[in-house]
Amino acid sequence: MEAEAAGALVGLSFLLLIFALGVVFSLIPWFVALARGCRNTIPIFVICLFFGWTVVGWVAAFIWACVDETSSRVPRRSRRRRTRTRRRKSSPALRSAR
Predict the structure, then answer these.
(1) What gap in Å lies between CA 62 and CA 30, rounded to an integer?
(2) What does the alpha-carbon distance between residue 55 and residue 26 come to, in Å, rounded to a whole number?
């Protein structure tokens, strides 16, 4: 009787381990997006959460995590404005005086 209980406990622990590894594997695209600093980490997490267990959803989220621009790559606008040198328009009276 104790052998059967021990066997059931080992089987249950094995199933829990497999389930935990499956959850971690389905969230790999989200971990990649976090590590790269992607701007769309929340939508990638949602895709992984709901569709990560399917092959198509996992591949789509992984591609999106790898292709998405990171926040450090987004060009920042320069705070310094470019100034144009304007030519002064001289009046006809001034041109004739020269």
Answers:
(1) 8
(2) 9
Could you tell me what percentage of the chain is helix, strand and coil, using 3-state DSSP and rounding each to the nearest 5? 65, 0, 35
The first and second tokens of residue 30, run together, are 């989200």
What's the predicted TM-score (pTM) here?
0.61
pLDDT digits (tens, 9 = 90+) for 64-96: 999 988 765 545 555 555 556 666 666 666 666
Residue-by-residue DSSP string for 50-80: HHTTSHHHHHHHHHHHHHSPBTTTSPPPPSS
- Rounded Cα distance, 55 and 27, in Å: 12
Q: Which two tokens stand for residue 6?
A: 């021990």
